[in-house]
Give the backbone structure.
Amino acid sequence: MRILGRGRIKTVLVTGGAGYIGSHICVELLDAGLEVIVVDNLSNSSQEALNRVEKIAGKTVLFYQIDLQDKARVKTVFETHTIDAVIHLAGLKSVGDSGRLPLKYYQNNIYSTLVLLEMLEQFSVKNIVFSSSATVYGDPATVPVTEQFPLRATNPYGRTKLMIEEILRDVANSSHIQVVLLRYFNPIGAHESGLIGEAPNGSPNNLLPYVSQVAMGQRDKVLIFGGDYPTIDGTGVRDYIHVVDLAKGHIRALQKIAENEGKGERCQAYNLGTGHGHSVIEVINAFEEACGHKITYKIVDRRSGDIAECYANPNLANQKLNWRAEKTLPEMMKDTWRWQTKNPKGYKSD
Ligand code: NAD
Ligand code: WQD
């Protein structure tokens, strides 16, 4: 077993570890020689993802099917294991649902975090990495976006991210806990084995799962939300980042806090993006290359709340975390397509 840094991180609790991004992080943690404990209520995921993680890594994950809001059960995990760091991904993430069900989002995302932080304090766990989002920048005045840009969320989901960032900043200032806030841009792609990937329930909200279902013939056509944005071709531009690059960023973040323990920044935010924007049309064209056939699309009205363009300035993460996104858009498409064709029904077997 390996230990990260002077702070000696060897056992990591991953909340939401059965989910899309969490499962890829588990693979990287196991590959780095760390022990991995997952707490997930499986509300938006499947335990099969963790079976596949074990298959890829050739190592085991300790899994607890627990809702993070259930303080008594979460406490038993902290009583049973010595946890050195937490990667906190668990949360609800649909922007649209959050507008319809704000209380559900505040209850689930915020209360879960409070329970978790109480455990970190009680059990003297010193390190937490939080899954934040580019959504905390709202509609940025310019691009690329740096960590210093003003923060303003435009929907309840985004506000839970912003509130949690603020809670974590207060906790870092008042306790032994060191915090890293990772602001993800648009994670896409899948592990190159084709064993784990994004498996949305119902109709996908995000572009890539939708495009891949159209490519599979499971849906008619992609509806492009808006063709009149002030962008290269009128369609929305985003910073798509391969989920494996994103997962590797978490290992670098852990390394950084392990090395920094007791000194330096107690709460630092980093953008995890490639620094490049791609339009919806560019993404569809790249996907056509990967799947080898045309994808039908239709340009329709803008989606309410969408912004024209958003991509990261990732310099801070490049420099301070010694991390850089390496995979190209064609690789992201190829890996998505491999996952989709090998698992047309996601993790469901029938
Ligand atoms: P996901 O839904 O696949 O993973 C989240 C996991 O958390 C799921 O497995 C779900 O079952 C679990 N969960 C939710 N509430 C829980 C609770 N109360 N107790 C225990 N488990 C709970 O989503 P993802 O795409 O892997 O996202 C992971 C994190 O990254 C989320 O916090 C999300 O907001 C954030 N994020 C995602 C994106 C993206 O585009 N996917 C972008 C930026 C930030
Ligand atoms: C990307 C582009 C759409 C679907 C969302 C959340 C954000 C973060 C990532 C968690 C946009 C266009 C999409 C479709 C389309 N999640 N599009 N047709 O909106 O950048 O970000 O996911 O934190 O908080 O808001 O991602 O994948 O939904 O859209 O034309 O069917 O694709 O308009 O330009 P978005 P997305």
Observations:
- The chain has a mean pLDDT of 96.
- Residues 9-189+240-273+312-324 form a domain with the Rossmann fold fold (CATH 3.40.50.720).
- Residues 16 and 40 are 5 Å apart (CA to CA).
